[in-house]
Amino acid sequence: MNRLGAVPDWCWWLVALALVAGGQQYRVVVAQSETASARGELADYRLQVSERDRRAAAQVRTEEQRRQAVADKEGESARQQLELAQGRAAAADSAAAGLRGEIERLRAGRSATCSAIAAQQRKAGASAVMVLGGLLEESDRMAGSCAAALERSRIAGSACESIYNGLSFKGREYREQSLR
């Protein structure tokens, strides 16, 4: 133990200070290494998140485009059906106008061909023909307008249902696929 006593005290303090400084330097190096590792992991995590976000955004865009395509297709189909129905309604109106003209011609012909002797008998028959002809004209007009309205309603409902089915079925399929 004499040998240890030969070393001055300040040397021991210097050795202790060197050990403490070395320990601190080691802790700093380890902390820097851990920080670099954590930064690398954070960068990897951010990259994974951004890639996941990009894929999700692409899927959302694809689904939105698919839904828009379904809606556009069904809308175009409904427009074509409406144009066809309007053409049929115009043809029906034209035929109805022809029938109304024929009724008017018959009314005029009846009154022109009847003789003066049968004027009293003709009066009752003519009024019945006039009433029936008027009722026929009015019912024909109403039937045409009701048929056109019902056809438009049917086409619009069918288009709406097709769009809903196209969106909801594919939407469920998309959600199930993304959950896998």
Written account of the structure:
- The chain is mostly helical.
- The protein has helices at residues 2-6, 9-113, 119-179.
- The protein has one domain.
- Helix 2 packs antiparallel against helix 3.
- The relative contact order is 0.08.
Element layout with pairings:
Blueprint: H1 2-6, H2 9-113, H3 119-179
Q: Tell me the helix content.
A: over 70%
Largest sheet report: none
| Rg (CA only) | 47 Å
Name the poorly predicted regions.
Answer: none
- Overall morphology: rod-shaped
Determine the oligomeric state from the structure. single chain
How many helical stretches?
Answer: 3
- Kindly report how far apart the N and C termini lie: 75 Å
The total domain count is 1
Q: What is the mean pLDDT?
A: 80
Structural class: mainly alpha
Strand content: under 5%
Topology as H/E string?
HHH
Number of strands: 0
Keywords:
180 residues, 3 helices, single chain, mainly alpha
